[in-house]
Amino acid sequence: MNITYITFGGHVEVEKYRYIYFVIMFMVYVLIICSNCTIVWLIITHKSLHEPMYIFIAALLVNSVLLSTVIYPKLLIDFLSEKQIILYHACLFQVFMFYVLSSSEFLLLSAMAYDRYVSICKPLQYPTIMRRTTVSIFLLLSWFLPAIQIVVPVLRNSITPLCNFTLKGIFCNNSVNHLYCVTSKALSIYGMVVLFNGALFPMLFILFTYIKIIIVACQSCGNVRKKAAQTCLPHVLVLINYSCLVTYDMVIVRLESEFPKTARFIMTLQFVTYNPLCNPIIYGLKMKEISKNLKRLFS
Question: The domain 5-298: what is its CATH number?
Fold first, then answer.
């Protein structure tokens, strides 16, 4: 009697196209795992890639696999099920993991930006600043800080009474706020603080560091400019890609009543597909050392 189920109302003609949806998304999920894990394996097995920049790239790709795993298995089960439902507390857990890993992505990109800043702007101090201890601390903070911040509203929402039991999406995100009878103003303010700490502040930090890198590169010789372009461009592309996806996630919840159901469904599938697939492609093609080892692997 105390078990509460939430229904996903964002699926479009799942009864008619369930097997097509399942096959396509299953292939995408397998491709995400294989492509990301291949580059992570290359970084682990090649000593020439045991540098802070590549360690952060491996952590980012692992983060992408974990984020996909939070969404894809449940999504695939729903495509084959008669009813697209989820336990309310399981939904809150999915919300927690989704936003922890999403925020970790920005923090890992911030760590990469700092690494590039020290490498290009302070090359003589790089070995003393970017030590193993420093890298380990950055990695721990990237996952630990978001978890501490996001667990607070999730625990508070777990005891908040529900007046609606249907989500307009296909997985649990911040649209769960539309399920509650009363919206807490304190939680809304806290949510804005978390958004700033987890996304906006890291983005501003990244932009600041890359501006500094561009200034130093323009004032230096051609080799420094070439190094800056080769190592910073992939991070910038990933940042732009992920920022667009997070912006979509925030906007779609605000405009969900005005947004056509089919368009929302298609864009959500793109949202969970593009970033985890683009990251290994960008780093595999644009990072010289990774690209070189990939060619060796497949030849």
Answer: 1.20.1070.10
pLDDT band at 1; cut points 50, 70, 90? very low
Tokens 């009864």 label which residue?
15
Question: Under DSSP, is residue 57 helix (H, G, I), strand (E, B) or coil?
Answer: helix
Instruction: Return the bridge partners of 86, or none.
Output: 6
For 182, phi and psi rounded to 5 degrees? -130, 135
Give alpha helix (H) positions in 122-221. Answer: 126-129, 132-157, 185-195, 201-218
Place of tokens 């995100």: 173
Domain boundaries of the chain, sorted by first residue: 5-298
- If we measure between CA atoms, which residue out of 266, 270, 212 comes closest to residue 245? 270
Cβ atoms 175, 167 nearer than 8 A: yes
The pair phi, psi for residue 46, each rounded to 5°, is: -105, 115
Q: Could you read off the pLDDT of 107-129 as tens digits, one per residue?
A: 998 998 899 888 888 888 888 88
Dihedral, CA atoms, 286, 45, 32, 134, nearest 10 degrees?
Answer: -70
